[in-house]
Write a structure and sequence with these properties.
The complex is a heterodimer of chains A (449) and B (200). By secondary structure, chain A is α+β, with helices and mostly antiparallel strands. Chain A has helices at 8-20, 44-51, 54-62, 65-68, 81-91, 99-111, 124-156, 165-187, 191-198, 207-231, 234-237, 325-334, 376-379, 389-396, 414-420, 424-427, and strands at 246-252, 255-257, 273-278, 284-297, 302-316, 322-324, 343-345, 359-367, 399-408. Residues 1-58 of chain A have low confidence and may be disordered. Classes of the chains: A alpha+beta (449), B mainly alpha (200). Chain B: Residues 24-65, 136-156 are annotated as: Disordered.
């Protein structure tokens, strides 16, 4: 830092900063990053990080003799000021984490101690808290056993005794709900469960992890999804109502797209990859339908629908959420039996005319009734143009589980995409705004000129 | 607040063109702040006490300046609480246990209140169905049916007199119900004192 070259006033400011900010500690020398003022040179730390691969090859040649004597320095283990400074000087690596953490790591490594498992950490309050929680868990487990017994007894009971079949069913339902609640409550206070879930290691076969995942989804992703679905009018336009219960992630290739994002026409030429995370136990048989809701209809002076894709009889479960539509169609090519195929209408690239407003492509995941497969050969006869999703859902008694959408509009690749999709003639069509005739009293007349 | 570059410099600013506000300037720089020390203080015949003289040697720092400097380098908000992963999990565990404890205690308190309420209710019900001789009558014959506790049943005033008395809300002192003003007991009798009564 060239202090002398600075203008006096500038120097004052850096003085101010030095007064205000904390003076440098051993981890962060005084002249390092945070004290620079109005400088375009990169921060010291940034330089260090960008240079980290470099010293490996420079180490053998350029390191002077006295530096080699320092031996190997581990950024995870350096503990005192001197070794930290040496690490930064020689290897150009910042020590990782706090000094306290590094000291603990180093000392445990020296003593070859085994790491204490989390539950056995010797903190009194923590252990007392664990005792309370374990006691509560025991209570919950006995309550679960009791509830199961009660439920079993109720199931065996004569409906006449329980006050009719309907009353009995209602009671069974509420008892099952209570049982599920208890099962969640038994595990919800376990820190290990929380940790595993946060690490993404939760087993989705277990109700507690499904519950946690569902809560997390509902806290943020579902809200965003619902906002997009309503803002872009998917809900009244495609289906009258929708209550999403599965988390759908849409991706083209490796890149994920948020609901409602614009997708480049070249990218959406191939089918997307769906990740349909269900939070209910058991397998489900679903159909995936992709509908374009903004196909311009010139005769009508309006818009109509067009179906881009239908696939049926796809199995999903909480542990097996992935639906790669590309792979699905590739597998279908190998299957000889036409009834066993799953793709009814193969993917057709979404397209938009030049000058026309953007197209909304809604992706729906529909649950098939009672897990029964649909006949793909009949579905294959569905006309793409003017496809009405409402009647499709009604006809096959499907239950919408969730939806997502992406948008497409005219871009530089669109002409090629349309040509390859067989809509070469459409690519030349350009939509323009209709000229609005001015009202008579606003019309410019001879008199006005 | 910390990021503002317009905070005043609190270093001695001899060589700068930057002028600090008068209140923050060092007392030695501001002639008005320096006390007029007599030049004769160096005289061997000075009457000034030694201690008092010695005090003047070092630069005196205005306590206001010290105070301002302290508050400028100590932000109002304390630093945020950062925990490591396991520390946070331990914290969370303790928090959950504490919440569970509170919940259980609240539940027990509510049950206790409920028990007390039910006991009072049962007592009132017992009074309602009691006739003059302390015998229980069937509920259909008792008064106090419906919202008004003063309604009489088919047996009239004979049944549930104490109940009706207990339910009088007139003369409630402040927010204390009349039931608490006097224990609801079986005397004095409605007929007044029996002067004829003798022990055989």
């Amino acid at each position: 830092m060239a202090m002398a070259s600075m203008a006096p006033s500038m120097r004052q400011f850096s003085l101010c900063l030095r007064c205000v900010r904390q003076p440098g500690t051993a981890n962060r020398p005084v002249n390092a990053t945070s004290l620079r003022f109005l400088s375009t040179t990169p921060a010291v730390r940034d330089q260090v990080q960008s240079e980290t691969p470099a010293p490996a090859q420079a180490e053998s040649k350029d390191v002077p003799e006295y530096m080699r004597k320092w031996g190997k320095l581990d950024p995870n283990r350096v503990e005192d000021k001197r070794t930290e400074r040496r690490l930064i000087r020689r290897d150009g690596v910042q020590p990782i984490g706090s000094r306290r953490r590094r000291a603990v790591l180093r000392r445990t490594a020296i003593r070859k101690q085994e790491e204490i498992p989390f539950e056995q950490l010797p903190y009194q309050c923590f252990q007392e808290a664990r005792k309370v929680l374990l006691e509560d868990r025991q209570e919950k487990l006995t309550a679960i056993a009791t509830q199961k017994l009660r439920l079993k007894n109720l199931m065996e009971q004569d409906p006449a005794v329980s006050g009719g079949q309907a009353a009995k069913d209602a009671r069974i339902r509420s008892m099952k709900n209570h049982l599920n609640e208890l099962i969640i409550l038994a595990d919800i206070n376990d820190p290990i469960v929380k940790k595993k879930f946060e690490d993404g290691l939760g087993d989705m076969n277990k109700p507690i992890y499904r519950y946690l995942a569902d809560q997390k989804w509902r806290k943020y992703k579902r809200l965003v999804l619902q906002q997009r679905l309503t803002q872009m009018d998917v809900v009244p336009d495609f289906l009258p109502a929708l209550d999403p219960v599965v988390d759908i992630d849409l991706a083209f290739g490796r890149k994920g797209y948020a609901p409602g994002e614009f997708v480049d026409s070249k990218i959406s030429e191939g089918p997307p990859r769906l990740n349909v995370q269900s939070f209910e136990p058991g397998e489900k048989l679903v159909s995936v339908v992709v509908v374009d809701g903004d196909i311009p209809d010139v005769q009508k002076d309006g818009f109509t629908y067009r179906c881009n894709f239908i696939a049926s009889n796809i199995k999903i479960s909480p542990t097996n959420p992935s639906i790669p539509l590309t792979q699905l169609s590739q597998e279908d090519h190998k299957i000889k039996d036409p009834a066993a195929k799953r793709v009814a209408l193969p993917w057709e690239a979404p397209w938009a005319n030049k000058g026309a407003p953007y197209h909304r492509l809604a992706v729906f995941v529909l649950e098939q009734p009672e897990g029964k497969p649909l006949d793909v050969q009949t579905l294959a006869k569905i006309k793409r143009y003017g496809f009405i999703l409402r009647s499709f859902v009604d006809k096959y008694k499907l239950k919408p589980l969730g939806a997502t959408l992406f948008r497409t509009k005219w871009d530089e690749n669109m002409a090629g995409v349309m040509k390859r999709a067989g809509y070469g003639s459409q690519a030349k069509v350009e939509f323009k705004r209709k000229r609005v005739e001015p009202l008579p009293y606003k019309r410019r007349t001879e008199r006005m000129r | 607040m910390n990021s503002s570059i317009w905070r005043t410099a609190l270093r001695p600013l001899q060589n700068s063109q930057f002028r600090a506000p008068a209140a923050l300037r060092h007392p030695t720089q501001t002639p008005s702040a320096t006390p007029a020390t007599p030049s004769t203080s160096a005289s061997p015949f000075s009457t000034t006490a030694t201690l008092q003289k010695r005090k003047k040697q070092g630069p005196t720092i205005d306590p206001r300046v010290t105070n301002i400097r302290y508050h400028l380098s100590h932000p109002l908000t304390p630093r945020p609480l950062h925990f490591s992963r396991t520390r946070y999990l331990r914290h969370w565990t303790i928090h959950r246990a504490w919440m569970l404890f509170l919940r259980k205690r609240r539940w027990a308190e509510e049950r206790d209140l409920e028990r007390q309420y039910q006991a009072m209710r049962a007592a009132c019900e017992h009074l309602r169905c009691m006739d003059e001789n302390g015998m229980e009558v069937p509920k259909s014959e008792a008064g106090g049916q419906g919202p008004d506790p003063g309604t009489l049943g088919p047996r009239g005033k004979e049944v549930g007199r104490l109940y009706r008395n207990a339910m009088i809300k007139r003369g409630v002192a402040g927010s204390v119900p009349v039931e608490y003003a006097r224990a609801q007991v079986d005397f004095p009798s409605r007929d007044g004192w029996n002067h004829e009564w003798t022990r055989n």
